[in-house]
Amino acid sequence: MGTETVSVGIGPVSIDDVLRVARDGAAVKVSDESLAMIAKSRIRIEELAAQTRPVYGVSTGFGALATRHIPLEMRTQLQRSIIRSHAAGSGPEVEREVVRATMLLRLSTLATGRTGVRPEVAQAYAGMLSAGLTPVVHEYGSLGCSGDLAPLAHIALAVIGEGPVRTADGELLPSADALARHGLTPVVLAEKEGLALINGTDGMLGMLILALRDLEALLKLADIAAAMSVEGLLGSDRVFAADLQALRPHPGQAAAAANMVRLLAGSPIVASHSGPDCELVQDAYSLRCAPQVAGAARDTVEHARTVAARELASAVDNPVITDDGRVESNGNFHGAPVAYVLDFLAIAVADVASISERRTDRFLDVARSRGLNPFLADDPGVDSGHMIAQYTQAAIVSELKRLANPASVDSIPSSAMQEDHVSMGWSAARKLRKAIDGLTRVLAIEVLTAARGLDMRAPLTPAPATAAVIAAIRAHVDGPGTDRYLAPEIEAVVQAAASGTLVAAAESVTGPLS
């Protein structure tokens, strides 16, 4: 567990706060101001609970069963029942970082005082996060409306002392035992509380935030890979000039091109063919248009970041307590805004991977590699070089194209047609996580291949920045030679890509990339 503590208050948590809790294991506390606001709004729920007039979520059933008035003596059972019945997920366990992000985001909404829960409910979420206890949540079960019901119900189930959890070191325990081990007490839910714990977009939003951080690094790596390929394939860096990019003023494109200029600065390989004797008029699109594709992906990420910031500032629940004390039903739990950008990002990921694979393929084709051995093989015919590494890329890119098919255009009615249009935002988020893993692997293979191609340009040497990346690779993978067992070498570079080692190597020369 991390030693840092993130404070959750009435205002929104930040993207960095979510990452600290989800990935770094930071502890969590609820601010005194927020606890006071929660207690104040709870008074309104208790007033409504005492009335004979039915109020949705307080004294009625749920969804299509909302017409049933629930008597006072059955309301604890009502709230417990919604958690048990909605904890109906199936499939593999969801990753710890996703569950922790989801828990923090639900707590953030509770902390606004808009949901009507008691302070001890919010404290229970903070206590579990701080203790490193992660409820078991399953892959399937959310339609993204009314929020991420099943995943959030599995989390709430652990809060009431039922179902399994994972400890900080991965041990699987019954929730009641794990809570007792850490001096935590299961919550007995009162009116409105069960519903308040499951009505949110927290799962899909948490995965969006995690994806945004991953893509920040991967788009830098995409520029590094493209620069190495341009260099290794004897391409031109003149097309990346700032004045040419300014003719089409997309900010992401300008950032990507500027990165590539810095990465290729001082390259003897580029200088070797930059004079008037160079016969090549212009490079293939996969080289020349690299900033346009990576730039468009950057701009898509920035749009998604705007949506994430708005969602972080939201209090998503149904019903919700307004400023003047009304308890009103609403549709803010619908995941469409988040679902759309999750799908947009999957499209961008697929295209960045697609252009990367095309550059790799150019290295391997003797007709297009400008003097390199076929497939970068040491002894072509005896050796196959990187022939099948490109097959692996192609297989991943094909999968990424399937994952780019939007989930948010689908909708399957549920709850006896009460919930007759849903967002599928959770599904969009799950496929984006898989797509990001695929992009990491595709870029790693391009960088590995480009490093081999650049080494084969000796005695010419690469730019200082790309040479630093090659050196980082050579710490794990030998240079050109006869065929070796390739899968472990690919995996070593994948890990270097995922850990940020390759970007850090480049930035040790260029300074921070955009």
Automatic annotation (TrEMBL):
The keyword Aminoacyl-tRNA synthetase does not apply. It catalyses: L-histidine = trans-urocanate + NH4(+). GO terms for molecular function: histidine ammonia-lyase activity. PROSITE patterns: PAL_HISTIDASE. Its EC number is 4.3.1.3. InterPro entries: Aromatic_Lyase (IPR001106), Fumarase/histidase_N (IPR024083), HutH (IPR005921), L-Aspartase-like (IPR008948), Phe/His_NH3-lyase_AS (IPR022313). It is an enzyme of class 4 (lyase). Its main location: cytoplasm. Pathway: Amino-acid degradation; L-histidine degradation into L-glutamate; N-formimidoyl-L-glutamate from L-histidine: step 1/3. It is found in: Cytoplasm. Keywords: Histidine metabolism, Lyase. It comes from the Bacteria. Gene3D superfamilies: Fumarase/aspartase (Central domain), Fumarase/aspartase (N-terminal domain). Belongs to the PAL/histidase family. This is Histidine ammonia-lyase. It comes from Candidatus Mycolicibacterium alkanivorans.
